[in-house]
Automatic annotation (TrEMBL), chain A:
Gene3D superfamilies reported in the protein's UniProt record: Urease accessory protein UreF
Gene: ureF
Pfam families: UreF (PF01730)
Species, as recorded: Reyranella aquatilis
InterPro entries, A to Z: UreF, UreF_sf
Primary role: Required for maturation of urease via the functional incorporation of the urease nickel metallocenter.
Protein name in UniProt: Urease accessory protein UreF
TrEMBL record, chain B:
Organism: Reyranella aquatilis
Role of this protein: Required for maturation of urease via the functional incorporation of the urease nickel metallocenter.
Name of the protein this chain belongs to: Urease accessory protein UreD
Family of the protein in this entry: Belongs to the UreD family.
Keywords: Chaperone, Cytoplasm, Nickel insertion
Length: 227, 264
Protein backbone atom coordinates (compact mmCIF):
# COMPACT_ATOMS: atom_id res chain seq x y z
CA UNK A 1 0.00 0.00 0.00
CA UNK A 2 1.27 3.46 -0.88
CA UNK A 3 1.85 5.64 2.14
CA UNK A 4 2.90 9.15 1.22
CA UNK A 5 3.06 11.51 4.22
CA UNK A 6 3.35 14.64 2.07
CA UNK A 7 0.26 13.73 0.09
CA UNK A 8 -1.75 13.33 3.28
CA UNK A 9 -0.46 16.52 4.83
CA UNK A 10 -1.31 18.51 1.70
CA UNK A 11 -4.79 17.02 1.65
CA UNK A 12 -5.55 17.76 5.31
CA UNK A 13 -4.24 21.31 5.25
CA UNK A 14 -5.79 22.28 1.94
CA UNK A 15 -8.59 24.87 2.08
CA UNK A 16 -10.63 22.17 0.30
CA UNK A 17 -10.51 19.90 3.37
CA UNK A 18 -14.07 20.34 4.58
CA UNK A 19 -13.58 21.59 8.14
CA UNK A 20 -15.09 25.01 7.41
CA UNK A 21 -11.90 27.06 7.87
CA UNK A 22 -13.18 29.70 5.44
CA UNK A 23 -15.91 30.69 7.89
CA UNK A 24 -13.46 31.87 10.59
CA UNK A 25 -11.42 35.08 10.63
CA UNK A 26 -9.86 34.72 14.11
CA UNK A 27 -10.57 38.36 14.92
CA UNK A 28 -9.31 39.69 11.58
CA UNK A 29 -12.77 40.90 10.58
CA UNK A 30 -12.95 43.13 13.66
CA UNK A 31 -9.33 44.26 13.32
CA UNK A 32 -10.29 45.53 9.86
CA UNK A 33 -13.48 47.15 11.15
CA UNK A 34 -11.49 48.89 13.92
CA UNK A 35 -8.81 50.12 11.53
CA UNK A 36 -6.10 47.97 13.11
CA UNK A 37 -5.64 46.24 9.76
CA UNK A 38 -5.87 48.80 6.96
CA UNK A 39 -3.57 47.58 4.21
CA UNK A 40 -1.07 44.91 3.35
CA UNK A 41 1.64 46.24 5.68
CA UNK A 42 -0.61 46.35 8.73
CA UNK A 43 -2.02 42.92 7.82
CA UNK A 44 1.48 41.44 7.79
CA UNK A 45 2.35 43.12 11.11
CA UNK A 46 -0.86 41.79 12.66
CA UNK A 47 -0.34 38.21 11.51
CA UNK A 48 3.35 38.32 12.37
CA UNK A 49 2.45 39.10 15.99
CA UNK A 50 -0.31 36.47 16.03
CA UNK A 51 2.20 33.86 14.83
CA UNK A 52 5.16 34.84 17.02
CA UNK A 53 3.39 36.08 20.14
CA UNK A 54 -0.19 34.89 19.90
CA UNK A 55 -2.16 31.87 18.75
CA UNK A 56 0.76 30.61 16.68
CA UNK A 57 2.85 30.32 19.82
CA UNK A 58 0.24 28.56 21.93
CA UNK A 59 -1.27 26.32 19.26
CA UNK A 60 2.21 25.54 17.96
CA UNK A 61 3.33 24.38 21.40
CA UNK A 62 0.12 22.39 21.90
CA UNK A 63 0.57 20.83 18.44
CA UNK A 64 4.13 19.75 19.26
CA UNK A 65 3.07 18.34 22.64
CA UNK A 66 0.15 16.49 21.04
CA UNK A 67 2.35 15.08 18.28
CA UNK A 68 5.00 13.86 20.73
CA UNK A 69 2.62 12.24 23.20
CA UNK A 70 0.78 10.54 20.31
CA UNK A 71 4.07 9.33 18.86
CA UNK A 72 4.93 7.79 22.20
CA UNK A 73 1.43 6.27 22.40
CA UNK A 74 1.20 7.96 25.81
CA UNK A 75 -2.54 8.49 25.62
CA UNK A 76 -2.88 9.69 29.19
CA UNK A 77 -0.43 12.50 28.45
CA UNK A 78 -2.07 13.10 25.08
CA UNK A 79 -5.48 13.51 26.71
CA UNK A 80 -3.97 15.99 29.18
CA UNK A 81 -2.66 18.04 26.24
CA UNK A 82 -6.10 17.80 24.62
CA UNK A 83 -7.76 19.03 27.81
CA UNK A 84 -5.36 21.93 28.04
CA UNK A 85 -5.84 22.80 24.37
CA UNK A 86 -9.62 22.88 24.79
CA UNK A 87 -9.32 25.06 27.90
CA UNK A 88 -6.72 27.43 26.43
CA UNK A 89 -9.09 29.58 24.38
CA UNK A 90 -9.37 33.30 24.97
CA UNK A 91 -12.93 33.86 23.83
CA UNK A 92 -16.14 32.03 22.98
CA UNK A 93 -15.60 32.45 19.24
CA UNK A 94 -11.99 31.33 19.28
CA UNK A 95 -13.08 28.28 21.28
CA UNK A 96 -15.81 27.53 18.73
CA UNK A 97 -13.36 27.98 15.86
CA UNK A 98 -10.94 25.47 17.30
CA UNK A 99 -13.45 22.96 18.67
CA UNK A 100 -15.70 22.83 15.61
CA UNK A 101 -12.84 22.51 13.13
CA UNK A 102 -11.02 20.02 15.35
CA UNK A 103 -14.13 17.85 15.68
CA UNK A 104 -14.76 18.00 11.93
CA UNK A 105 -11.14 17.25 11.15
CA UNK A 106 -11.17 14.18 13.36
CA UNK A 107 -14.42 12.92 11.94
CA UNK A 108 -13.46 13.39 8.28
CA UNK A 109 -9.98 12.00 8.76
CA UNK A 110 -11.31 8.91 10.54
CA UNK A 111 -13.38 8.22 7.46
CA UNK A 112 -10.94 9.08 4.67
CA UNK A 113 -7.65 8.12 6.33
CA UNK A 114 -8.72 5.68 9.03
CA UNK A 115 -6.47 4.74 11.91
CA UNK A 116 -7.31 2.94 15.14
CA UNK A 117 -5.68 5.71 17.21
CA UNK A 118 -8.07 8.28 15.71
CA UNK A 119 -11.09 6.12 16.61
CA UNK A 120 -9.80 5.64 20.13
CA UNK A 121 -9.17 9.36 20.62
CA UNK A 122 -12.65 10.06 19.30
CA UNK A 123 -14.13 7.63 21.80
CA UNK A 124 -12.11 8.87 24.79
CA UNK A 125 -12.70 12.55 24.11
CA UNK A 126 -16.30 12.33 22.93
CA UNK A 127 -15.32 13.59 19.47
CA UNK A 128 -14.15 16.94 20.87
CA UNK A 129 -10.62 17.96 20.10
CA UNK A 130 -9.05 21.38 19.54
CA UNK A 131 -7.85 21.76 15.94
CA UNK A 132 -4.06 21.84 16.53
CA UNK A 133 -4.21 18.69 18.64
CA UNK A 134 -6.48 16.91 16.15
CA UNK A 135 -4.11 17.62 13.26
CA UNK A 136 -1.08 16.72 15.38
CA UNK A 137 -2.67 13.39 16.28
CA UNK A 138 -3.41 12.49 12.67
CA UNK A 139 0.04 13.61 11.55
CA UNK A 140 1.73 11.60 14.24
CA UNK A 141 -0.13 8.33 13.72
CA UNK A 142 0.18 8.62 9.94
CA UNK A 143 3.94 9.06 10.12
CA UNK A 144 4.27 12.73 9.20
CA UNK A 145 7.31 14.40 10.77
CA UNK A 146 6.59 17.02 13.44
CA UNK A 147 8.42 19.92 11.83
CA UNK A 148 6.75 19.48 8.44
CA UNK A 149 3.34 18.94 9.95
CA UNK A 150 3.56 21.98 12.22
CA UNK A 151 5.01 24.25 9.54
CA UNK A 152 2.15 23.10 7.29
CA UNK A 153 -0.39 23.74 10.02
CA UNK A 154 0.83 27.27 10.72
CA UNK A 155 1.03 27.99 7.01
CA UNK A 156 -2.58 26.90 6.55
CA UNK A 157 -3.64 29.01 9.54
CA UNK A 158 -1.86 32.05 8.09
CA UNK A 159 -3.15 31.54 4.57
CA UNK A 160 -6.71 31.20 5.87
CA UNK A 161 -6.50 34.49 7.77
CA UNK A 162 -5.03 36.26 4.75
CA UNK A 163 -7.91 34.94 2.71
CA UNK A 164 -10.32 36.33 5.33
CA UNK A 165 -8.53 39.69 5.26
CA UNK A 166 -8.77 39.90 1.48
CA UNK A 167 -12.53 39.75 1.77
CA UNK A 168 -12.66 42.41 4.50
CA UNK A 169 -9.99 44.90 3.32
CA UNK A 170 -9.89 46.07 -0.26
CA UNK A 171 -6.82 44.02 -1.09
CA UNK A 172 -6.12 42.03 -4.25
CA UNK A 173 -5.19 38.38 -4.60
CA UNK A 174 -1.60 39.32 -5.42
CA UNK A 175 -1.37 41.39 -2.25
CA UNK A 176 -2.49 38.32 -0.37
CA UNK A 177 0.34 36.27 -1.83
CA UNK A 178 2.85 39.05 -1.14
CA UNK A 179 1.65 38.99 2.48
CA UNK A 180 1.99 35.22 2.64
CA UNK A 181 5.52 35.46 1.26
CA UNK A 182 6.36 38.14 3.83
CA UNK A 183 5.18 35.83 6.63
CA UNK A 184 7.36 32.89 5.61
CA UNK A 185 9.97 33.74 8.27
CA UNK A 186 7.29 34.17 10.97
CA UNK A 187 5.80 30.73 10.20
CA UNK A 188 9.27 29.21 10.16
CA UNK A 189 10.29 30.86 13.46
CA UNK A 190 7.00 30.01 15.18
CA UNK A 191 7.48 26.38 14.13
CA UNK A 192 11.03 26.25 15.50
CA UNK A 193 10.07 28.02 18.71
CA UNK A 194 7.15 25.67 19.32
CA UNK A 195 9.30 22.59 18.76
CA UNK A 196 11.88 23.91 21.24
CA UNK A 197 9.30 24.43 24.01
CA UNK A 198 10.13 22.24 27.00
CA UNK A 199 7.10 22.98 29.13
CA UNK A 200 3.67 24.32 28.23
CA UNK A 201 3.84 26.15 31.58
CA UNK A 202 6.30 28.60 30.03
CA UNK A 203 4.19 29.43 26.97
CA UNK A 204 1.93 32.46 26.68
CA UNK A 205 0.69 35.25 24.47
CA UNK A 206 1.34 38.99 24.28
CA UNK A 207 -1.56 39.81 21.98
CA UNK A 208 -4.38 41.39 24.00
CA UNK A 209 -5.56 43.30 20.92
CA UNK A 210 -6.30 39.97 19.26
CA UNK A 211 -8.42 38.92 22.25
CA UNK A 212 -10.13 42.30 22.27
CA UNK A 213 -11.00 42.02 18.56
CA UNK A 214 -12.41 38.55 19.13
CA UNK A 215 -14.51 39.82 22.07
CA UNK A 216 -15.80 42.71 19.98
CA UNK A 217 -16.63 40.42 17.09
CA UNK A 218 -19.38 38.83 19.18
CA UNK A 219 -21.39 42.03 18.93
CA UNK A 220 -20.12 43.34 15.60
CA UNK A 221 -23.05 44.58 13.55
CA UNK A 222 -22.17 43.17 10.15
CA UNK A 223 -20.32 39.88 10.17
CA UNK A 224 -19.22 37.64 7.35
CA UNK A 225 -17.32 35.29 9.64
CA UNK A 226 -18.04 33.17 12.71
CA UNK A 227 -14.98 34.50 14.54
CA UNK B 1 20.62 40.05 48.75
CA UNK B 2 18.50 37.58 50.69
CA UNK B 3 15.73 36.01 48.67
CA UNK B 4 12.34 36.15 50.28
CA UNK B 5 10.17 33.08 50.54
CA UNK B 6 6.83 34.05 52.00
CA UNK B 7 3.51 32.37 52.31
CA UNK B 8 0.02 33.10 53.51
CA UNK B 9 -2.92 30.74 53.83
CA UNK B 10 -6.35 31.85 54.85
CA UNK B 11 -9.53 29.85 55.16
CA UNK B 12 -13.03 31.08 55.88
CA UNK B 13 -15.81 28.80 57.09
CA UNK B 14 -19.47 29.14 57.78
CA UNK B 15 -20.19 28.63 61.48
CA UNK B 16 -23.43 29.44 63.31
CA UNK B 17 -24.75 31.06 60.14
CA UNK B 18 -21.82 33.47 59.82
CA UNK B 19 -18.60 33.42 57.83
CA UNK B 20 -15.67 33.26 60.22
CA UNK B 21 -11.93 33.00 59.89
CA UNK B 22 -10.86 29.37 59.93
CA UNK B 23 -7.15 28.68 59.59
CA UNK B 24 -4.50 31.30 59.18
CA UNK B 25 -0.84 30.75 58.40
CA UNK B 26 1.58 33.51 57.49
CA UNK B 27 5.30 33.71 56.94
CA UNK B 28 7.17 36.93 56.13
CA UNK B 29 7.05 38.81 53.93
CA UNK B 30 3.43 37.64 53.47
CA UNK B 31 0.92 38.91 56.02
CA UNK B 32 -2.85 39.03 56.14
CA UNK B 33 -4.97 41.71 57.81
CA UNK B 34 -8.65 41.42 58.59
CA UNK B 35 -10.19 44.87 58.63
CA UNK B 36 -13.65 45.13 60.13
CA UNK B 37 -16.04 44.93 57.20
CA UNK B 38 -18.61 47.63 56.65
CA UNK B 39 -22.11 46.85 57.84
CA UNK B 40 -23.73 44.12 55.79
CA UNK B 41 -20.50 43.31 53.96
CA UNK B 42 -18.78 39.91 54.03
CA UNK B 43 -15.46 39.49 55.89
CA UNK B 44 -12.33 40.74 54.20
CA UNK B 45 -8.80 39.41 54.02
CA UNK B 46 -6.17 41.92 52.98
CA UNK B 47 -2.87 40.48 51.80
CA UNK B 48 0.31 42.42 52.42
CA UNK B 49 3.87 41.95 51.26
CA UNK B 50 5.77 43.53 54.14
CA UNK B 51 8.96 43.88 52.13
CA UNK B 52 7.15 46.54 50.09
CA UNK B 53 7.82 44.83 46.80
CA UNK B 54 9.06 41.73 45.11
CA UNK B 55 12.43 41.26 43.51
CA UNK B 56 14.47 38.66 41.62
CA UNK B 57 14.39 35.22 43.18
CA UNK B 58 11.61 35.94 45.65
CA UNK B 59 9.01 33.19 45.91
CA UNK B 60 5.63 34.04 47.38
CA UNK B 61 2.65 31.76 47.86
CA UNK B 62 -0.84 32.84 48.76
CA UNK B 63 -3.89 30.73 49.22
CA UNK B 64 -7.47 31.58 50.02
CA UNK B 65 -10.04 28.91 50.69
CA UNK B 66 -13.74 29.49 51.25
CA UNK B 67 -15.63 26.66 52.91
CA UNK B 68 -19.16 25.52 52.02
CA UNK B 69 -21.71 28.33 52.23
CA UNK B 70 -19.20 30.96 53.39
CA UNK B 71 -18.62 34.32 51.70
CA UNK B 72 -15.55 36.56 51.74
CA UNK B 73 -13.62 39.21 49.89
CA UNK B 74 -9.85 39.05 49.51
CA UNK B 75 -7.65 41.84 48.23
CA UNK B 76 -4.18 43.33 48.57
CA UNK B 77 -3.30 46.39 50.61
CA UNK B 78 -1.51 48.15 47.79
CA UNK B 79 -0.32 47.71 44.25
CA UNK B 80 2.29 44.94 44.11
CA UNK B 81 5.58 46.29 42.81
CA UNK B 82 7.91 43.93 41.00
CA UNK B 83 11.39 45.46 41.01
CA UNK B 84 14.08 45.23 38.39
CA UNK B 85 15.87 41.92 38.68
CA UNK B 86 19.60 42.00 39.24
CA UNK B 87 21.68 40.53 36.48
CA UNK B 88 21.53 36.76 36.37
CA UNK B 89 18.84 36.41 39.03
CA UNK B 90 16.00 34.01 38.42
CA UNK B 91 12.46 35.28 37.97
CA UNK B 92 10.45 35.88 41.10
CA UNK B 93 7.43 33.67 41.46
CA UNK B 94 4.01 34.31 42.93
CA UNK B 95 1.71 31.32 43.24
CA UNK B 96 -1.89 31.98 44.09
CA UNK B 97 -4.27 29.20 44.98
CA UNK B 98 -7.95 29.97 45.31
CA UNK B 99 -10.54 27.41 46.38
CA UNK B 100 -14.25 27.93 46.53
CA UNK B 101 -16.50 25.21 47.96
CA UNK B 102 -20.13 24.42 47.25
CA UNK B 103 -22.40 27.38 47.96
CA UNK B 104 -19.41 29.58 48.80
CA UNK B 105 -18.69 33.01 47.36
CA UNK B 106 -15.30 34.65 46.90
CA UNK B 107 -14.36 37.97 45.40
CA UNK B 108 -10.61 37.87 44.74
CA UNK B 109 -9.77 41.46 43.95
CA UNK B 110 -6.07 42.20 44.36
CA UNK B 111 -4.87 45.63 43.35
CA UNK B 112 -2.69 46.03 40.29
CA UNK B 113 0.72 44.45 39.84
CA UNK B 114 3.30 46.90 38.48
CA UNK B 115 6.13 45.17 36.68
CA UNK B 116 9.06 47.57 36.57
CA UNK B 117 11.34 47.81 33.59
CA UNK B 118 13.80 44.90 33.79
CA UNK B 119 11.75 42.95 36.34
CA UNK B 120 11.09 39.24 35.91
CA UNK B 121 7.92 37.75 37.29
CA UNK B 122 6.19 34.41 36.87
CA UNK B 123 2.82 34.37 38.49
CA UNK B 124 0.47 31.41 38.45
CA UNK B 125 -3.06 31.59 39.72
CA UNK B 126 -5.13 28.44 40.02
CA UNK B 127 -8.78 28.67 41.00
CA UNK B 128 -10.79 25.60 41.83
CA UNK B 129 -14.49 26.21 42.09
CA UNK B 130 -16.86 23.44 43.11
CA UNK B 131 -20.29 23.36 41.46
CA UNK B 132 -22.54 25.75 43.35
CA UNK B 133 -19.60 27.99 44.28
CA UNK B 134 -19.09 31.49 42.89
CA UNK B 135 -15.87 33.29 42.12
CA UNK B 136 -15.28 36.80 40.86
CA UNK B 137 -11.59 37.50 40.28
CA UNK B 138 -9.89 40.53 38.85
CA UNK B 139 -6.23 41.08 38.19
CA UNK B 140 -4.58 44.05 36.58
CA UNK B 141 -1.01 44.18 35.34
CA UNK B 142 0.95 47.30 34.42
CA UNK B 143 4.07 47.14 32.29
CA UNK B 144 6.62 49.71 33.47
CA UNK B 145 6.01 52.91 35.39
CA UNK B 146 4.45 54.82 32.56
CA UNK B 147 3.81 57.88 34.76
CA UNK B 148 7.59 58.30 35.15
CA UNK B 149 8.10 57.78 31.44
CA UNK B 150 9.44 54.26 31.93
CA UNK B 151 9.02 51.81 29.09
CA UNK B 152 8.96 48.07 29.54
CA UNK B 153 11.85 47.42 27.17
CA UNK B 154 13.31 44.38 28.88
CA UNK B 155 12.08 41.99 31.51
CA UNK B 156 9.51 39.28 31.72
CA UNK B 157 5.93 38.98 32.79
CA UNK B 158 4.44 35.51 32.67
CA UNK B 159 0.97 35.56 34.16
CA UNK B 160 -0.84 32.24 34.00
CA UNK B 161 -4.46 31.58 34.97
CA UNK B 162 -6.24 28.27 35.32
CA UNK B 163 -9.81 27.64 36.36
CA UNK B 164 -10.61 24.14 37.49
CA UNK B 165 -13.81 22.36 38.35
CA UNK B 166 -13.31 19.23 40.44
CA UNK B 167 -11.25 16.82 38.38
CA UNK B 168 -10.96 18.94 35.24
CA UNK B 169 -9.41 22.04 33.76
CA UNK B 170 -12.06 24.26 32.16
CA UNK B 171 -10.21 27.42 31.22
CA UNK B 172 -6.62 28.57 31.08
CA UNK B 173 -4.69 31.45 29.64
CA UNK B 174 -1.19 32.82 29.96
CA UNK B 175 0.07 36.30 29.25
CA UNK B 176 3.74 36.29 28.40
CA UNK B 177 5.46 39.58 27.68
CA UNK B 178 9.20 39.59 27.21
CA UNK B 179 10.59 43.04 26.60
CA UNK B 180 8.80 45.35 24.19
CA UNK B 181 5.28 44.31 23.36
CA UNK B 182 4.81 43.32 19.72
CA UNK B 183 3.39 45.51 16.97
CA UNK B 184 0.23 44.32 15.29
CA UNK B 185 -2.03 42.51 17.74
CA UNK B 186 0.09 43.40 20.80
CA UNK B 187 -0.82 46.13 23.27
CA UNK B 188 -1.05 49.02 20.80
CA UNK B 189 -0.33 52.10 22.95
CA UNK B 190 -1.60 50.38 26.11
CA UNK B 191 0.62 49.56 29.07
CA UNK B 192 -1.99 47.93 31.28
CA UNK B 193 -4.41 45.02 31.06
CA UNK B 194 -7.08 44.04 33.54
CA UNK B 195 -8.68 40.61 33.37
CA UNK B 196 -11.91 39.78 35.15
CA UNK B 197 -12.84 36.13 35.57
CA UNK B 198 -16.20 34.96 36.82
CA UNK B 199 -17.29 31.45 37.69
CA UNK B 200 -20.94 30.70 38.34
CA UNK B 201 -23.13 27.71 37.58
CA UNK B 202 -25.29 29.96 35.40
CA UNK B 203 -23.03 32.63 33.92
CA UNK B 204 -25.44 34.14 31.40
CA UNK B 205 -27.14 36.82 33.57
CA UNK B 206 -23.73 37.94 34.88
CA UNK B 207 -22.41 38.07 31.33
CA UNK B 208 -25.28 40.23 30.10
CA UNK B 209 -24.80 42.65 32.98
CA UNK B 210 -21.04 42.80 32.37
CA UNK B 211 -21.48 43.38 28.66
CA UNK B 212 -23.88 46.28 29.22
CA UNK B 213 -21.46 47.90 31.71
CA UNK B 214 -18.41 47.45 29.50
CA UNK B 215 -20.17 48.95 26.48
CA UNK B 216 -19.88 52.30 28.26
CA UNK B 217 -16.28 51.93 29.49
CA UNK B 218 -14.33 55.12 28.79
CA UNK B 219 -10.82 55.48 27.40
CA UNK B 220 -10.08 51.74 27.38
CA UNK B 221 -10.67 48.87 25.00
CA UNK B 222 -12.98 46.52 26.84
CA UNK B 223 -14.97 43.41 26.12
CA UNK B 224 -16.40 40.30 27.72
CA UNK B 225 -17.14 36.74 26.71
CA UNK B 226 -18.21 33.44 28.17
CA UNK B 227 -15.76 30.75 27.15
CA UNK B 228 -16.16 27.16 28.34
CA UNK B 229 -18.74 28.46 30.82
CA UNK B 230 -16.32 30.99 32.37
CA UNK B 231 -16.87 34.73 32.14
CA UNK B 232 -13.75 36.52 30.92
CA UNK B 233 -13.60 40.30 30.56
CA UNK B 234 -10.62 42.38 29.47
CA UNK B 235 -9.84 46.06 29.84
CA UNK B 236 -6.83 47.29 27.91
CA UNK B 237 -5.36 50.78 27.95
CA UNK B 238 -3.20 53.29 29.76
CA UNK B 239 -2.69 52.32 33.42
CA UNK B 240 -4.67 55.11 35.08
CA UNK B 241 -7.54 54.72 32.64
CA UNK B 242 -7.63 50.95 33.13
CA UNK B 243 -7.62 51.33 36.92
CA UNK B 244 -10.50 53.84 36.77
CA UNK B 245 -12.50 51.76 34.34
CA UNK B 246 -11.88 48.60 36.36
CA UNK B 247 -12.95 50.24 39.64
CA UNK B 248 -16.05 51.57 37.97
CA UNK B 249 -16.87 48.25 36.38
CA UNK B 250 -16.35 46.21 39.55
CA UNK B 251 -18.31 48.65 41.68
CA UNK B 252 -21.32 48.61 39.36
CA UNK B 253 -21.08 44.92 38.58
CA UNK B 254 -20.95 43.91 42.25
CA UNK B 255 -23.38 46.61 43.32
CA UNK B 256 -21.10 47.52 46.22
CA UNK B 257 -17.97 49.54 46.77
CA UNK B 258 -14.58 47.92 46.46
CA UNK B 259 -12.73 47.20 49.73
CA UNK B 260 -11.58 50.39 51.44
CA UNK B 261 -7.89 49.73 50.68
CA UNK B 262 -8.65 50.37 47.01
CA UNK B 263 -9.63 53.94 47.77
CA UNK B 264 -6.71 55.07 49.93
Amino acid sequence: MVNDPLYRLLAWLSPAYPVGAFSYSHGVETAVEEGLIRDRVSLVAWLDSVLRHGTGTVDGALFAAGWRTASASDWLAFDAVAERAAAWRGTAEMALESRQQGGSFLSITRTAWPHAALDEAHRRLGGELALPVAVALAASVHGIALEQALAGYLHAFTANLISAALRAVPLGQTDGQIALAALEAAVHDATRTAIAVESLDEVGTATPLLDWCSLRHETQYTRLFRS
Amino acid sequence: MQRASGESRVTFDLRDGKTRLGDLYQRDPCRVLFPKPELGEPPQAVMITTSGGVTGGDALRMSVEIGPGAEAVATTQAAEKIYRASRGSVACTIDVDVRVAEGAVLDWLPQETIVFEGARLKRRTVAEVVEGGSLLACEMVVLGRGASGERFASGLLLDAWSVRRPGRLVWTDTLRVEGETPDGAGFGTANALATVIGVWDVPLPHFEKARALLETADAVRAGVTVVNGILVARLLGEATAVRHATIRFLTEFRGRRLPRVWHV
